[in-house]
Design goal:
The complex is a heterodimer of chains A (about 375) and B (about 55). Chain A has about 375 residues and is an alpha+beta fold. Helices cover about 45% and strands about 15% of the residues of chain A. Classes of the chains: A alpha+beta (about 375), B mainly alpha (about 55). Strand 13 of chain A pairs antiparallel with strand 1 of chain B.
């Protein structure tokens, strides 16, 4: 392809993606000027056909285009499907979850990609996974309850500690601190002995067996390595690199772990993404998650419908749900809100607050019986001078 | 000729058909009777003295 032809493509009135595809497809081919014109014109024509005309009711079309396949989803699954031994909510429940903008999904999971130095080597990937997977103290040694002296003795197994790449001193330091800070249990003292790798916990109340057993429970389950929210990590090899799948999600802490590729790592917790990476990332996450959920069911919905939904949800700078507590509930117009749900309350509140309705939306104008701002209703005619 | 969306086309033809049905002088020579058909014919020849105002 000639450089001037390439320039004509990149200057053309097309979307970036179409230009990219066109360049990729025509690259390395020798195209006569005449044919090139035909190709470019046809592509342009085709692109114009796919565009939405002004005044089109895109919201309604999006709602129906997602809603109709949604009815098919209900019939097919309401179950969980396993990806790499990890349960992930899929199908309609997941779609509802996305649209509802829940603070936490019912099955938070992460897909953690590793940097090139780590992704090729199983052992290195495993090392990263140990930094991430929450490991309770009882995995690092034996915990015995010494009833006679009313204390709990932890013998750390140095071999395990070495294998997991964590220093004994670190465990000795973290365990009591985490019981206090994370588990909010403070009625105990402890003594540690770094040489024989033991920690001795003593409850403050030396009389009560109940306290002793309570403390033992905390000691056993305190997380000493990894990230608290991430309960399980599975290492899998996919297309030549090792990828970590997790149960539980904590984007911020995972990003701090060495070896994690922060550019590709993702979570299915959308509100977490919006907090850590910002609203634009959350918008992309909504699009990706919704599309992935639909595609997994073998349902093809045009991205643009989902993009519209995602745009509406993220428009105000935070992720808002579709429904009473989000987009529909915070509309400007009283009549529009009243038409949606709890009609009387909205009208009453509006009357008390002396609200004014500008009648600028669709619903309001339908209610008062005026032409709506859609389709032919939004076209303003003017006289054209005759010559 | 300016390109119109289908809504604009419908609106222009509709407005012109109303004028014709109420007795406005025609801008084309035609054998048709139906004002809507006459309006469409006028539109195709781009002689309707109406256009749209875009935002």
């Amino acid at each position: 392809m000639l450089p001037e032809q390439e320039k004509r493509i990149s200057d053309a009135d097309l979307t970036e993606k179409t230009k990219e595809q066109l360049l990729k497809y025509l690259n390395g081919r020798d195209i006569p000027a005449e044919q090139f014109d035909t190709i470019l014109n046809r592509v342009r024509e085709e692109y114009q056909k796919t565009r939405i005309e002004a005044c089109e009711a895109v919201g309604i079309i999006a709602a129906q285009s997602i809603g109709e396949p949604g009815t098919q989803m209900t019939m097919r699954t309401f179950h969980y499907a396993g990806v790499a031994e990890i349960n992930v909510t899929l199908g309609l429940p997941r779609l509802i979850e996305i649209m509802d903008a829940r603070k936490e999904p019912s099955t938070p999971t992460m897909t953690i990609y590793l940097q090139p130095e780590y992704s090729g080597d199983r052992d290195k990937a495993r090392e990263v996974s140990w930094q991430i997977e929450a490991a309770p103290l009882h995995e690092f040694g034996d915990i015995t309850i010494d009833m006679e002296n009313m204390q709990i003795v932890v013998h750390l197994n140095t071999a395990v500690c070495d294998k997991r790449k964590i220093a004994v001193s670190t465990i000795v330091e973290t365990a009591p601190r985490k019981i206090r800070d994370r588990r909010h249990y403070r009625d105990f003292d402890y003594e540690n002995n770094d040489q024989d790798a033991t920690i001795v916990f003593m409850p403050k109340n030396r009389e009560s067996y109940q306290n002793l057993f309570q403390l033992a429970e905390h000691v056993r389950n305190v997380i000493v390595q990894g990230i608290d929210d991430i309960e399980r990590v599975v290492v899998r090899k996919e297309s030549g690199e090792y990828i970590l799948y997790t149960e539980g999600s904590n984007l911020k802490d995972v990003f701090d772990v060495d070896g994690v590729d922060t550019t590709r790592t993702r979570t299915n917790n959308i509100s977490e993404i919006s907090q850590v990476l910002g609203i634009e990332a959350a918008r992309n996450a909504i699009i990706h998650e919704a599309l992935a959920t639909l595609n997994e069911q073998g349902i093809a919905v045009d991205v643009r419908h989902i993009m519209l939904v995602a745009d509406m949800m993220c428009m105000e700078g935070e992720v808002k749900q579709i429904g009473r507590h989000g987009i529909a509930g915070e509309k400007e117009s009283v009549l529009s809100r009243a038409a949606f749900e709890v009609t009387v309350n909205h009208l009453l509140d509006a009357a008390v607050a002396n609200e004014v309705d500008e009648l600028s939306g669709v619903t309001e104008n339908v209610i008062v019986g005026q032409p709506i701002q859609l389709g032919t209703g939004d076209v303003k005619l003017i006289a054209k001078p005759m010559n | 000729m300016q390109s119109y969306t289908r809504y604009e086309r419908a609106r222009i033809i509709g407005a012109r058909a109303l004028q014709i049905s109420m007795g406005a002088p025609l801008l084309v020579q035609t054998t048709r009777i139906d004002p809507l058909e006459i309006a469409i014919e006028e539109f195709q020849q781009n002689i309707i003295p109406i256009t749209v105002k875009r935002k």
